[in-house]
Amino acid sequence: MVETIVCRNVSKVFRAGKQSVEALLGINLTITRGMFVVIGGENGSGKSTLLKLLVGLLLPDQGEITVLGVPVKTGWKRLATRIGVVLPSDRSLYWKLTAKENLHFHGGIYGLKRNEIQKRTLELLLRLGLLSQQDQLVEGYSTGMRRKLMLAKALLHKPEILFADEVLSGLDPRTTTEVLAILEEFNREGMTVVMVSHVLHNLPAKARFLLLKNGKIVLDGPLNKFQFEGVVRIRAMLGDREIEEIAEEAELSEVILQLIQQGASEVRIEKDDLYSLVRRYLA
Amino acid sequence: MSKILYIAWKEGKIQSRYRFVWFNRSLTPFFMLAPYVLIARSLSSSLESWVLVGSLIWYWLNQYFFGVGDAFSEEREEGTMANIALSPLSLLGFLVGKGLWLMVDCLYITAITIVFFALLGVSQGAWWLMLLLYLLCGVFMFAFSIFFAGLVLIFRRLASINFIIQQGLGLLSGQTAKIEAYPRSIQLIAYTIPLTYAIRASRALVDGNLYLVSSSFVGLISTTMLYLLIGLVAIYWAEKRLRIEGSWEVW
Ligand SMILES: Nc1ncnc2c1ncn2[C@@H]1O[C@H](COP(=O)(O)OP(=O)(O)OP(=O)(O)O)[C@@H](O)[C@H]1O
Ligand SMILES: [Mg+2]
After folding, report:
1. Which of B14, B79, B243 sits opposite A92 (nearest CB)?
2. B contacts of A87 (beta carbons < 8 Å)
3. How many CB atoms lie within 10 A of CB B165?
4. Which of A262, B82, B160, B231 could form a disulfide with B248 if both were Cys (CB 3.0 to 4.6 A apart)?
5. Angle, helix B3-16 to helix A99-109, in steps of 10 degrees
6. CB of B250 less than 8 A from some CB of A
7. Its pTM surpasses 0.80
8. Contacts of B93 (CB under 8 A, 6+ apart)
9. Per residue in A59-89, pLDDT tens?
């Protein structure tokens, strides 16, 4: 297996005056080629910081990061054409340019040939359903359309790795599925995907899930390892308190009986999913 | 097209979305300078071209200090700076692209201004020769503005006194005056500013004093080189700091 991304003991502290925020603490991480990695975690847990460190926008206080065999600290410009980055803010597009012009500009500063830019632009806009609005100024785009254009921009120069920070935020359910399908398709063709996301459903079965909490990785494993089949979540009111229990389907009736004996009311049974797993880990 | 040219292309495209602003900008220097030039004319006809030439050179500095000096803060406020940083283009390459666009922009506006003054009967020698000289001096003003851009990246507050700095530089360099009339100490400061030499060279060209043109260029080249060098170090240093602080965007 080819190690594509390696972080060794990476820490990042932000200092502003006397205050300092420990955004990441001793991160060790290896991502191999072709992986589809999803990074989750609460607001402020360090997800974006990790992504920015991986692409070179930030320098770590401690530790080393290599991407595609290149040390990011010194070699980030050499890496530029080999990675694609979707930043979280849609302000990273030029709003006074059209979608097509944004992509042409991007292709241009990434050193693509003119006809290559034209071909790729057409392909991606078509694939993302933006072709009919390609000559519209980005300022007239909706949030979701901008998000898709940002993805097109990151994919334009055929990167080996895609880093995407909240590329799914602001997308409607159908578009979320569409964008995930596109990412999976590119991933199948060999592109490594590292995405930060608060959206945790419909993720590809092969995805590796990383959970950050207070700047540390608290959970790391393939999604299909987390068993949700045959597991249920029971919620109930105990007095004025809401409680939640996870149980195997086989022992369901027994658990409910126990709960009722304890005086629980409003018992609800739900399928377990990644959201509740994350909630349990972060509690 | 090379990567750098795409920066210029992008600037041009965005500008073209503000046609009215462009129209406004192309006439501004004429209306701004006309009162001074016309007063000078009522005194003597050699003075009018002195003021016009000095002011036009200052105008190039003004455009470069705004365009290049604020280039980083502009993109940071837009939120597009991080994308430039992530691209294979260096920050300097980005500034050069921006500078190329400004050159086209300034050349066009200067030409319009020259035409308007010519219509008023203000002469300044062969127009094409002067335009060439403005362009050449413009290259040096551009290099000088890289120094300012580098400083702005380090001392952000400088951006807010950009215009005052330009005015001060104009005054010191004798935009509308002879610096020989200044006190000795002020003259010494004036000779550390590239603009001083650029203005002197252009006036010498109007007067047909080719010896003074070339000696002024020696001063222009050497002072500009020095500022450029400091500017490049500042940009290099600032980039590192941006990567430590992560302040690629400011709203
Ligand atoms: N440039 C910066 N300067 C100072 N502090 C920062 C900077 N960037 C991030 N931080 C701090 O580092 C911590 C982690 O921030 P980060 O943006 O990585 O969180 P996140 O997990 O991406 O959160 P969200 O889900 O809200 O996007 C936060 O406490 C944040 O305030
Ligand atoms: Mg974030």
Report:
1. B79
2. 82-83
3. 15
4. B82
5. 160
6. no
7. yes
8. B3, B4, B7
9. 999 999 999 999 999 999 999 999 999 999 8
